[in-house]
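Hi F.,

I've been meaning to write this up properly since the lab meeting, where we talked about keeping a consistent format for the predictions we share between groups. The idea is simple: the sequence comes first, exactly as it goes in, then the structure tokens exactly as they come out, then a line or two of notes. No screenshots and no reformatting. I'm using this chain as the first example so we have something concrete to point to.
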Amino acid sequence: MKTYISILRGINVSGKNRIKMDELKQVYLDLKFKNCETYIQSGNVVFQYKDADVVVLGKLISKKIASHFGFDVPVLVMRVDDFKTISLQNPFVNLRSEDPSKLHVTFLADQPETSNLEKLSEVNSGKDEFEIQGKAIYLFCPEGYGNTKLSNNFFESKLKQVSTTRNWKTVNELLRIAENL
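Output, unedited:
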């Protein structure tokens, strides 16, 4: 059995796409996933399953959510080792020791294309900073994520792909859950 972390995009935000975590967990169990654990209400699920392609798993989960709840939700799935690598490479922790409450990670569905990355080099983000490494964008938002223009919608429009963001506390907690399954 392999351990995976899935993060859903755009559920339980502003009263839209409401999913209770016990119902979400049941969707995963219906898919024959094992040891499913949810974390907070924003659609984070750690689970175990046989060795499988993460893109295929994301599509499978998304399809099951659509049939069960009646709306589409993008789902990003990562192996725990890949998630751990992302958590260990945060430059705002490793190189600068910034306040963890001001740190976030935007997870990307795919590796960004060079032409789309070039669009980001011209962005004036004020005090907010970001660094892209692979399929992760590390964010430092000194005035809070709610006050930044570096949102999921911003990165999705520039990079032309699905993204979803988690705060640094959530990233660490998901990793802790996954490593203890």
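Notes:
The chain has seven helices and eight strands.
The mean pLDDT is 94.

If this format works for you, I'll send the rest the same way.

G.
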